[in-house]
Amino acid sequence: MRESRLRTLWKQDRAAVNGWLAIPNSFSAETMAHQGWDSLTIDLQHGVVDYQAMVTMLQAISTTPTVPVVRVPWLEPGILMKALDAGAYGVICPMINTREDAQKLVAWTHYAPRGTRSFGPVRALLYGGADYPQHANDTIVTFAMIETAAALDNLDAILSVEGLDAIYIGPSDLSLALGCKPTFDDLDPKAAEAVDHILARAKAHGVVAGIHNGAPEAALRRIAKGFRFTTVSSDARLIAAGAQQVLAQMRNPPASAGSNTY
To answer: How many CB atoms lie within 10 A of CB 96?
Structure first.
């Protein structure tokens, strides 16, 4: 079966740098994949990506060693299984609030006897290889998002669920849940304390901790703390930032470049 770079990096206690895909287009996904991200996550929860676009994006990512991950819209067995059958090597599930939620997530992403995932890896066989059924349970990565006050209250119970590989913090939703302003990097003290607490408890349970970031500086600080899955920005934000940089230079050229006639 095809290797998962995520698991290889984590065995070496190294952090994976994850990119985020919000644009429903295979060419933009392919372009991102060729830049050297360890993994790329296709976001089905927020934004405009639908299932069929996701499939073409997974095909585009598979032209590289980048690990394909999908954030599903919700804790629902159908979409979890279809994302895996399409070739996702990891799934991120939002709003996991209780131990029961985490148990369902693990069950729906693993074949029997570990779980209840239905068998039908139509594209996963093409991506992972003919021995996919024998190794999928040990290769697929299952992330539970920790982003609510309820999840904080039930944190140790969630982290103790056997088969849960990783947690993923959504700083904006977590901040909102704690009465703080929603942001990625410069968190209010209460939210920052919660992030540190989640990280510490994940380490104690041997569960990989991941988090969403807006800028590389924040991601590097969090890697230094112990996060081993760090998302930085997204395809849409990177396009906007690059365009803004070009236009700022064009609209306000240095004097040596001549007058602004645009």
So the answer is: 27
**What pLDDT is attached to residue 260?**
55
5-257 has CATH 3.20.20.60 classification: yes
Q: Cα–Cα distance between 216 and 197 in angstroms, integer?
A: 22
DSSP-assigned states of every residue in 245-258? HHHHHHHS--GGG-
**Residues 128-172 pLDDT 10s:** 999 999 999 999 999 999 999 999 999 999 999 999 999 999 999
How far, in Å, CA of 139 to CA of 256, rounded? 56
Give one DSSP letter per residue of 203-229, joined into a string.
HHHT-EEEEEESSHHHHHHHHHHT-SE
Q: Model confidence over 31-73: pLDDT tens digits? A: 999 999 999 999 999 989 999 999 999 999 999 999 999 999 9
CB 92 within 8 A of CB 41: yes
Q: What is the pTM of this model?
A: 0.95
Inter-CA distances, 242 with 30, 76, 171, Å: 18, 36, 24
Active site annotation includes 34: no
Catalytic site residue from 46, 110, 135, 212 = 46
